[in-house]
Structure formats: structure tokens, C-alpha cells
Amino acid sequence: MKSEMKLAVAAMGVLALSAGAWAGVGSEASFNASLSALRGQVAPAADELNKSVDDALNCAKDHCPAGNPFDAEAALAAMDPAKIGVAARFVAIKPGTFLMGSPQGEGEQDETPQHQVTLTRPFEMQATDVTQLQYLLVTSNNPSAFAKAENCPGKLKVIAGIAACVDSPVETVSWNDAQAFIARLNAIQDKYTYRLPTEAEWEYAARAEGGSVGGSWTSENSGNRTHEVASRASNGFGLYDMLGNVWQWVQDYYGGYPRSAVTDPQGPSTGSYRVIRGGSWYGGAGYARPGIRNSGGPGGRGNLVGLRLVRSSR
């Protein structure tokens, strides 16, 4: 990587709970009580949440494996109602055309040539980075370096012996880890197909059709750590932390840009490195730009890098 190297439980998150947290509930009565409590805590996302709760109630046994150590009470205790709606929300992004990259002399060499990109298909992008709680509920693991009390005062929770700053972005995940997380998420529910965004989708979403790019956590204001998702202003599309806080893996191999207009680009067909976008808490504001590119080996991990999902209905 270059030297500078953010579902927590509504639409996507309840699906994760349906496969994990609810499996530890001892009886149908307590299961239903926990679901009622969950509904009461997440009024800001009620409509979407209720659909997801229905999915959870209809969860097939083969989608809800036994033996998961999480229980509903612990999961509920970890939730911050103020964050649940936004952290699990997905924003609909319409097709469009934009200039990808940076003009010569305004960015790094790998940001050129600036070229026209047309995206012909709509997609839904997660409003925030994947949080530590979301990742924990799906994988029963939290690899994050920033999972200590000093990293999230008053927000550290311990679930089944695993500590998490529940509203902070998960980090220290490789591209391979991200793929395993996505595979698990796709296996435990059948409503959506989740994936990483393409590099072009990511930059189109970050630029928000020329609107505000939103606030960012960088070395100038981060205090050398990550911060809660959605604690800075969103961009013009309603996406938080597209810039700063943690770099975000995308699907593409890293490579040079095309020299002419392209439609629905998928990046190079082969390569050794995967693209990372957006800047982080560690780098300066100059790294928190829609055009900045970074890369890393698919097995590499670091406390600067997390992920954000896109989804489509099945």
C-alpha cells in the first residue's frame, strides 16, 4: 500500500441477527419479546426494519445455524438507536455519466487520464461503512484495532466475550476478508445480493453529481483513531464517510485508467492488487478526495482499511 494507507441492525443488520443473535434465544416467547423490544428501539427506521423483522421471523432453520454464541439480549444491549437506522440504510443511486479521475497536475499520476464514465444500471449503496457490530454479528469475529474503551468512550460493548466499538467502522480487514463477510451475508438471507462496489460506482457515489462531498475524519481532526459512522455531514447522495475515517475496499483490480469514454467499467481483468478508496483517519485532507486511489494485496490488513457494501434485490 502507499504510505497512507465504515447492518447496526435494521435492514441488513436484522438479517444478520436472524442468522446469529436470534439463534441463541432460549424460547419462542423470549424470541418474540426480543423482536418486540427491537421494534421499539428503532423507530427511526421502522418501515424498513419491520420488513426485515418479518424476514427474521420467517428464517429457515438452515439459514439460522445453531451454536452461534450470540444472544438477543446482548445484541440489543449493544445497539444505539440513534445509529441503527443510518448504519443499516442503503441509498438508491441512479444511473448517470461523470468524469472519473483528476485533471493532469491536480492529483496523483494514477488518477489520470480523466475520462468519461457512464453507469447504465442503478444500485444501492450502504449509507455508512460496515460497522464493528455488523461485522461481528455476521462473522462472530471483530478484527478491529480500534475496539477499546478509549476508542469509543461509553460505546464499547462486549458480546460473547468479544469487544466492539459498535458504531465505529470495522477495520483491519483484507479484501479476502471482505469477500468472506459478503459470502456469509449472502448465504444467511435470500432477499438481497451484496457485493463490493466497482471503483467507478464508488467514485460516482463519492462525487454525488458535483454536490457536497460531505465531512471527513482525517489526521487534522481524528485524534489518531476512527470515529463513529455518520458523525460527520453526509454527501449530496446521503452517504456518510465516503472520504476519511477508513479507506474502503472496492471490487476492482488496480490498474491504469482507459484513455477514452467507457460504460459500466469493471476494471482490469487480472492483477496483483485490489483498489482502496477514500482516505482515512491517518492521512491528511489531501487524501480525502473523490479521485484519490490506493491499492493493496488481497490478503493485506491494516487499521486504516474497512469496507462498504452495495446490494441489489434477488
Write a structural description.
The longest helix has 14 residues, at about 30-40. The protein is globular. Helix 1 (about 10-20) packs parallel to helix 3. The chain has a four-stranded antiparallel sheet with strand order 1-4-13-7. Strands 11-10-8-12 form a four-stranded mixed sheet. Strands 2-3-9 form a three-stranded mixed sheet, with helices on one face. With about 325 residues, it is of the alpha+beta class. The chain has helices at about 10-20, 30-40, 45-55, 70-80, 80-90, 130-140, 175-185, 200-205, and strands spanning about 90-95, 95-100, 115-120, 125, 155-160, 160-165, 190-195, 245-255, 260-265, 275, 295, 305, 310-314. Strand 5 and strand 6 form a beta hairpin. It is built from eight helices and 13 strands. It folds into two domains: about 5-90 and about 130-170, no CATH class; about 95-125 and about 200-314, paralog of FGE (formylglycine-generating enzyme) (Alpha-Beta Complex).
